[in-house]
Amino acid sequence: MGVTSETKAPAVETGIAGEVLKRFRQNLQTYTIILALIVIWILFAFLTNGAYLSSQNFSNLFRQMTVTSFLAIGMVLVIVTGGIDLSVGKAAGFVSVMVAFFQARVWNTLLPDQPILAAAISTVIGLAVGTVFGATQGYLIAFLRIPPFIVTLGGMFVARGLILWRTEGKTIPANQPGFSFIAQGYLPDLVGWILAAAVVLFLFFNMFSSRRRKRQYGAEVSNLYIDLMTTVFFSILVMIYVYIVNGYNGVQVPVALLAIAAVVMTYISNNTRFGRYTYAIGGNREAARLSGINIKHTLFMVYTLMGLLVGVAGVVLASYVGYGTIAAGEGYELDAIASAILGGTSTLGGTGTVFGALIGALIMSSITTGLQMMNVPPAWQYLVKGLVLVLAVYVDVSFKKGKQ
After folding, report:
1. Rounded Cα–Cα distance for residues 56 and 171 (Å)
2. Range of 242's domain?
3. Which of 11, 182, 184, 346 has the fewest C-beta atoms under 10 angstroms from its C-beta?
4. 293: which residues sit within 8 A by CB, 6+ positions away?
């Protein structure tokens, strides 16, 4: 009996080790970008004598990534279908201008003593404007079959024109107390911990539901201990983040909103028919059509959802900047696309995750913040970000070739 037990133990260890190695190979690209983020933080911490990882800078870093992140998590599904959306930056800028217009020139007159109500109505208007903008582009792409590149390029010009029309070349203030809280406020420490607990619960729920779905469809299910260790690891990261920012002023309201949006988008991507159809279209559009997927309806919903997230980003942008300006949203579309690609979303379609897009946005924000703290000229900042993006696409293509 003793000999038998001794011979079984190594087999179990080898099985778990083999599972770990297999998981590492399958998610090598994800682990690579996480490692790159850690290296970036360590490098800038060294170059700034530790100031980069202070509680205040850490808090500002996550706040600054929120607008790009809202756009990036929507961009994932757009690129997964094999499309692109070049309009999201200026569309978010137009939303921010419209929100600022209502805050400064409408509600100040109609609701002078109701800042919370005014902020709530302005937010709803911003979400509606973004959703309509996205739905319009989605209709042109899905039902009229105009290429996404052309539609969204035109949308970018339209949004830029609408910004000039609404602002009349002037800056519109959007720094009213109730509205400013959306992007500049902080949650009490206890609320931050409650939010963190909710995110952790979702991580475990998502892990177990993913395992259940794999069994349901006859797919291979990974070792339970490996899944548990991975989920515990990310749960610890969430708790560490809350602990650090609570050392400053607490969890930022826009980061809390981003966490909610990310959870919802992750659920939609992984646990709904719409999400599965989206990835199926990106993987093989003809096969998706032959299997009965309504490609036109799915594409329309993808761009409409992108529009909704543009609305959220525009509201946060107006609240964060405090103004609606003619330059609102400039360059955000490039940061959003870069973040999605850095996070592992394939330019060839069919592959991408919300989590990866968040890491990509954090990398972009980390690089920008670090270079700014070192007083690096803007020209060199753009050069570095461009090189990082090209390198990410090269890595993506290399991974694709390796799997063929």
Report:
1. 29
2. 186-251
3. 11
4. 277, 280, 281
Provide the domain count of the chain: 2
Within-domain flag for 19:
no
pLDDT in tens, the chain (404 residues): 444 444 444 444 455 565 555 555 555 666 778 888 888 889 998 988 888 888 888 888 899 899 999 999 999 999 999 999 999 999 999 999 999 999 888 767 777 778 888 889 999 999 999 999 999 999 999 999 999 999 999 999 999 999 999 998 889 988 888 889 999 999 999 999 999 999 999 989 888 888 887 787 777 777 777 788 888 988 998 999 999 899 888 899 999 999 999 999 999 998 899 999 999 999 888 898 888 999 999 999 999 999 999 999 999 999 999 888 999 988 899 899 989 988 888 888 888 889 889 999 998 899 888 888 888 888 888 888 788 778 777 776 676 665 55
Same domain, 146 and 115: yes
Is pTM beyond 0.85? Reply is yes
Q: Which residue has the tokens 């000039």?
A: 164
Q: State how beta strands 172-173 and 323-324 pair.
A: antiparallel
Main-chain phi, psi angles of 173, to 5 degrees? -70, 140
Whether residue 232 is found in the same domain as residue 110: no
Instruction: Give the span between the Cα atoms of 232 and 39, in whole angstroms.
Output: 22
Query: Does 149 share its domain with 285?
Result: yes
**Per-residue tokens: 134:** 């996205």
Together in a domain, 166 and 235: no
The H-or-E segment that residue 172 falls in is strand 172-173
